Amino acid sequence: MFVPWRSKPLELGNNLSAGIIVAFLIIPQAIGYGLLANVPANIALAAATLPLIAYALFGGSRSMAVGPVAIVSLMVAEATTDMSANEIALSVPLLALMVGTILLTIRFLSLGKLVNFIGHPVIQGFTSAAAVLIIFKQLELMLGLPSDVFNVNTWHLPSLLLSTLSLISLIIVKGFMPSPLNKLGPLMVLLAGMIIALNLPNLKIETIGYHATGDIFTLFSPWNQDTNALSNTLLTLLPSAVIISVLVFLESTSVAKVVAKKHDERISPNQELMGLGSANIIAGFSGAFPVAGGFGRTMVNEEAGSTSPLAGVFTALFVLLFINFIPESINYMMKPVLGAIIAMAVWSLIDLSPLYSHWKIHPQDNAIWLASFLGVFILGVESGIMIGVGLSIAFLLRNAAHPHIAIIGRIPNTSHFRNVRRHKVETHPHVLAIRIDEGLTFANAENIEDFIARAIFDHPKTRHLLLVFSAVNQIDSDGLERLESIIRRQKKEGILTHLAEVKGPIMDKLQHLHLEKLLAPGQIYMSTHEAFEALENQNDNEHKS
Question: For the STAS domain, which residue ranges apply (predicted)?
Fold first, then answer.
């Protein structure tokens, strides 16, 4: 847990300046993400206050900036689609509470590693597709449209001009101004848009129009809700809450790892689960939507000099000052400008480079990436993720059922053995050495047995079958039965089976077969080299006699 009074004076100064800079960035982003999530500005800004303090108390990353993020906002919008305003008012904070509860449950049950079943191709494809969807949604704001983006006659030209100028300004500020001023582009264009709204009302550019009061928080108490409505809403939101929880954890820990690596530190997934879970619980009780660690704001926080989570506390306090003393300014924040800010923020999330790298390294990952991308883009966020995860599991099972198995031979003048298809090696016509590069389990035992049968058929002179177990780390009852079947079948064919490099835990299980009696006169060897030499000599002696 972070203890603020242990900070040195210099660290307090650095964290204060970093916190203020991030606050200038998070205010326009939060309101923009609120539009994306279809929630009022007060709910969006609430997500940029107390949850940050909760993470500072319980989180582990020194510089991660927690708050509203684009992907989660999109998922909140999808989870509350077709709901009335009253239903959204119940669902949004309830969703944050559910996410926080799930994250804390994962923490206390030590189940954090389960999220590893969602591979990077799924996340990469999902993130790119979600970013494209978010940008399309911003076009409605940037063009001043009620709905139809593709009908040019409905475009509002002042909105189009303002959003275009905002994008150009953001690009110029980001690319040409020195750090940390280049991080203030969103604030600059937002202020410029507000000046236009105040001085040129005849342009009829749409503003937020939220008549804010000093009471930004709508405290949420699930115990005061109608029981039937609450239970129905819980069931409706549960799938979305689970997926959002996983994404919050994955995205946030990825960001935390980047910061930790920069400082040669390590992060604790359990600590992150504690911090993120607490932040979302507080978000729910303060009426906000779910929060996560944002990559862009974290990098700004880091570059601005943040050295501890105290910077997040200063950010939250600065946002609280803003919403309590100048909330009326929200009325003049222009939607085309906010649309440009969000589009610019998520543009960097679109990454097509994995398609090229996956194609060269592992084509299956390409299929998973494309399935996730197209699934999200066509069917929606939840369906896209489920398709990607389902395809990942299908490939995992397929790969488990078809392990790599190699016929090996000895590299001349060495004691090393390699795949006959990859290296020039020495083999013996009467000795067939096969290396199994996976455990023997119910999923692959039949395929391993089939491979051995085909290999022996292709090598009709085989008298000794040497199975190299150097990579066999597990064996189940199906694997034991198949191994026994292989040994007995080959013995009937006049072929002796031998084992080499069997690990201790595997040998313990093999004893249940009464292995030495089953193999006899076959043997178990400590190394492949020892086995190969012994079998060569034995075979040569048999032929001499």
Answer: 421-535
**Selection from 267, 357, 360 nearest residue 62 by Cα:** 267
Residue (of 529, 454, 524) closest to 496 by Cα position: 524
Written as one letter, the residue type at 250 is L
Residue 47 per-residue DSSP state: T
**Which residues share a beta bridge with 497?**
465
Cα 306 from Cα 316, distance rounded (Å): 14
- Cβ atoms 138, 340 nearer than 8 A: yes
Phi, psi of 466 (to 5 degrees): -105, 115
pLDDT (tens digit per residue) in 218-252: 666 665 667 777 788 889 999 999 999 988 998 88
CB neighbours of residue 223 within 10 Å: 6
Place of tokens 């990607």: 388
For the chain, list the domains and their CATH numbers. 8-351 (no CATH), 405-544 (3.30.750.24)
Is the dihedral angle over the CA atoms 217, 5, 253, 241 positive or is it negative?
Answer: negative
Q: How far apart are CA 349 and CA 271, in angstroms?
A: 26
Could you tell me where the DSSP H helices lie in 38-84? Answer: 41-46, 50-58, 70-79
What distance in Å separates the CA atoms of residue 134 and residue 140, rounded to the nearest whole number? 11
Copy the structure tokens of residue 251: 């995205």
Predicted confidence band at 122 (pLDDT cuts at 50, 70, 90)? confident
Query: What pTM was computed for the model?
Result: 0.75
Scanning the structure block, which residue is given the tokens 């609450």?
230
Tens digits of residue pLDDT in 435-470: 999 999 898 999 999 999 999 999 999 999 999 999
> Which amino acid, one-letter code, is at 381?
V
